[in-house]
Amino acid sequence: MTKDNPGEIQPPFSSDDGKSLIVQRSTVEAQTDYRKYKNYLRADFWFSCAYCTMCESEAGGHRFTIDHYEPRSARPDLETVYENLFYACDACNERKGDRCPPASARAVGYRIFRSDQEARTEHFEQKGIRLEAKGGSKVGDYTINALDLNRGELRQLRTLRRRLWEAEVAVSHGIMALRSFPIDRLPSHVKGAALRAINEMLDVVGDVEANVEKVLANYAMSAVLEDGTVTQEELERRKVRVQRLRDIQKEHPGNWRGRKA
């Protein structure tokens, strides 16, 4: 999918070091109101949240907004600078707020991940339906906890994505098996009937393949992502997350918010 033609599919971009780098910034005309950049940001970030990767079609009731990577309260001079703007879902944007790690913390890696400058695989790895910091990455550690990237709706979304992938693989294998069926080995009097049956099955499988993503996307947009239920396990997870953020801030005393202390 390109910025000029959203219907055209292109392979992922790569950074100079060969690592996957999906986001490519457009060259845009400077604006005095950052909100005028929204359509450019939507395309540059592939209609997905820069932080949790939830896309618009999966978001259901979630709104997408413009996030200032360096908060306006800390860097008002960057308010309308395009390179400081990110496309983000409301949930991530609200959690990020005006977080602005002090220089001492940034120097050792405690900062929010930038999907426009670094590959996600450098800092994150998915284990089951949980996201973890890869190789002890401080960027990954801080981003996961600051933005709560293992919140319930994201774990559910990863489950749905995994089911979609498994369904697509199964369907693809079915198509390959049918297409490679050795018709010429059948007796001549049944070849025609077998060929017609296989073609009919391929049509059915093709319909399934075309609609499986739509079905699961609709499921993803249902209330199952946020049913309001908070389990004891979820409460414990939240406590661990908050404590981890406190520990990081104790390691590097200072103002961790954009507003003045």
The global form is elongated
Termini distance? 44 Å
Strand order of the largest sheet: 1-2
- List the uncertain runs: 1-19, 220-225
In total, how many beta strands? Answer: 4
Oligomer: single chain
Percentage beta strand: 5-15%
| Cα-based radius of gyration, to the nearest Å | 23 Å
Biggest sheet features = 2 strands, antiparallel
The arrangement of helices and strands along the chain is: HHEEHHEEHHHH
Q: Bin the helical content.
A: 40-55%
Structural class call reads mainly alpha
Instruction: Give me the number of helical elements.
Output: 8
Look at the structure and give the mean pLDDT.
80
Description:
The chain is mostly helical and 261 residues long. Helices cover 43% and strands 7% of the residues. Helix 6 packs antiparallel against helix 7. The longest helix is centred in the last third of the chain and has 33 residues. The two termini are 44 Å apart.
